[in-house]
Structure formats: structure tokens, C-alpha cells
Amino acid sequence: MIKLIILCASALLTIATMAQVDSTEVKKKRLSLGGYGEAVMSRNFYSDHIYRYSKPESHADDDSHGRFDLPHVVFFVGYDFGKGWKMNTEIEFEHGGLESAVEMEAEESGEYEAEVERGGEVALEQFWIQKTFSDAANIRAGEIIIPIGLTNQGHLPNEFFTVYRPEGENTILPCTWHQVGISFWGRTDNWKYEAIFTSGLNADQFGNESFVHYGAASPYEFKVANNYAGVLRIDNYSISGLRLGLSGYAGPTFENSLSKNTKYKDCKGTLVIGAFDFQYKNEKIVARGYADYAHLSDAYEIGLWNRETFATKYDDSPSKRQYIGSDAVALSLSIGSYLVHRKKSENALLIFGHYEYYNSFLKGKLSDTYQWCGKHRIALGLNYMPMKEIVIKAEYSKRFLKSQYNNEPSISMSIAYSGFFQY
After folding, report:
1. From the CB of residue 20, how many other CB atoms can be counted at a distance below 10 Å?
2. At 169, phi and psi to the nearest 5?
3. Is residue 255 classed as helix, strand or coil in its secondary structure?
4. What are phi and psi of 116, to 5 degrees?
5. First to last CA, the chain
6. What is the pTM of this model?
7. What angle do CA 243, 377, 282 make, to 5 degrees?
8. What's the average pLDDT block by block, 10 residues per block, for the chain (423 residues)?
9. How far apart are CA 167 and CA 171, in angstroms?
């Protein structure tokens, strides 16, 4: 009898241990840990003087300058609670710092300006909770990616060839663009779609060279939401290896801050963006491209308000105090060809060519003054991937400006990773 009790107890202990192991394994499968990061070295063979555009003839022979940089280091944690509920969060360190910096404003009298991109010591790039009803119906709420254009949709370092993210979208749009909002998305057959309701951008932080790039940021501990915006994205996968995407954004931007307008009563600052992008992959080549166009109503009045108000009343504000273009454009095409493919060996080596044109002041009352905002850029280089999570990049690039300005060549190298540590 005693032996039987001992055997039963032993069996129960074994079952309990196995259940505990199984439970731990289930929990491990529900938990995902990962991230991505980039370390960059570049040498720029052009002037970095503040008056290089207003007095280009005086700076044609200036010395080159070099930089080391950590553009993005990101860690993310996700958890599947079960029953269709899921959470994901990403914490980002930009340029190795605390998201506050001092920069010298080109063409703005050369003053040093404290640039606060977002309040807080680090950036919470994503934090959302999602309920999945089916593949075709998901609701996501929290700090989410705004998927306008190619780069916001594919911003990991192994999703673009160049050392830095493509300049065009990274200049005229927030990138990576993330805001608090609610999203409905899903996928059926060869279609993927997403609709988002979120707060509008803040016109106080628009600029001549950056257009609306800084408009999604907030220097406060919260995001002002006096105005609201809508986002729509549709992707098609009907052709093998090819993805085609259309995305759009619309919403007012003026007075979406703590500053109160006392002069421009009819100013709305409505921002409308339309974007097309694609990606094609097969065993030999990878091709990517995008075409973005944006229009900002009342752009001149917004520029006047930013210069008049923040230059006197709010000296410590994060406003750039600049005139803004009414229209902006960004176009890009990248093609890469495999010299060595991963299917034939552990390594992959790819040679690429990249072209883009972007102009943050394409139209506007002062567009003739800001012709230096229009740039063509080419890049040629290599991507070496010793494994799928690691990429080493090298490139030569050159910006071509209008004839009265100096062109801007550079060389850059980087090493980057992107992947899961546990999934």
C-alpha cells in the first residue's frame, strides 16, 4: 500500500513538472523580444557652413567633415495574451542620445537651437494593444506606426539599401512616423488594408527644409489633439514577388498646439498627402520605389505666424520660426542585384543603385528663395549579409543641387542588425 502511494505521488509530481514545463514553453512562445540598430561612419566632401546655400561661391572649397552616428537603436517586446489579444512595444534611442540636441540652423542667422524632438528621455516608438477577430478584421490602439509611403512601412535597416534611410521621405515626412491613434486593419486574399484615426500634426514645428517632418513630435508630456486626421493604406500582392501600395493622409495642422492664434482666423493648414510605393523581389534582384506628393494649405500664413510669434513671445519654443512651402515632393527608385545569393551559400552580397529627387519647398510664395531645398541624389554601393539578421553597407552618394549651389558628395559605411532574440 505504501509503495502504491509512493508511486502515485511520484506520478503526480512528474505530471505537475511536465505541466509546468509545458506552461513555461507556452509562455516563451507568447513572448517575443527583438530589435534593430545601426552604427554609421561617413565622410562628407562639402561644406557644413551655415551660409553654404546663401553664399555658395564662398564655400566651394571648404574642408570635408566626418561623422560617427548611431541613427537608431531599438528594442521591442511583444506578448500574446491569447484569445486574440496581443501587445507590442518599441523603445528607440535616436543618434545615441536622449532625443534632445543642439543644432545650428542653416540659413537662419546661424544661431544655435535646442532641438527637442519629443518629450521624455527616450522615444516610445510603438505601444499598442490589438484585438484580432480574424485575418480580415483587427483593431489596434495606442502608439502606432502611420504607414504613409515606403520608408514608414519598411524602416528596418535590412529593408533599404542605403546606409541612412532614403532621404526624400525622411526629409519631408515624419520618419518613423508614429502617433497615438486607433487602427482597423486586415488582409483578405491578395489585399491588405488599414484605416487610422489619429491627432493632426503640429504646424508650429514645420520648416523650410524639413516641411512637416517634425510635426508629429511633441515637446510636452502629451500630444495636443485639437485637430484630428485620417489615414488610409491599401497594399496588393496579386503578382508573385510584387507588392503595390497606395497610402493617403488628410487633416488640419494649424492651432494644434498650446499657442493660441490671435491673427489668422481663417487659417486651417490642411495637410493632404498621397503616396505610391512598391517592392519587387526574386532570386536575382530586389527593386523598391516610391512617389509622394504633399500639399499644405495656408503655408505662407503658417510661416508668418511661426516667425512673428515664436521669435518674440516664445523664445524657448521648439518652433523653427521658418517659412514653409505649400507643396513638397519625394521620388525614389532603388535596384539591387545579388552577386552571391543566400540560397547558394550562407552569405549574400548585393550591389545596388539608388536615385531620388525631393523638394521640401516645391511651391510657395518664397519658392525662388529656397531653391536649395530641391535635391537630386544618387548612391551606389554594396550590402553584405553574413546572415539574414546582419547587414554591412558601403556606399558612395552625391546630391545634385541647382547650378548656383555646390553639389554634395559623400562616402558612408555602416553595420546593422535586425531580428528577434526570442520568439
Report:
1. 10
2. -65, -35
3. coil
4. -105, 110
5. 47
6. 0.87
7. 25
8. 47 44 53 95 94 91 93 94 96 73 52 47 86 98 97 94 96 95 97 97 94 90 91 98 98 89 87 98 96 97 88 68 96 96 78 98 95 97 94 98 96 96 77
9. 6
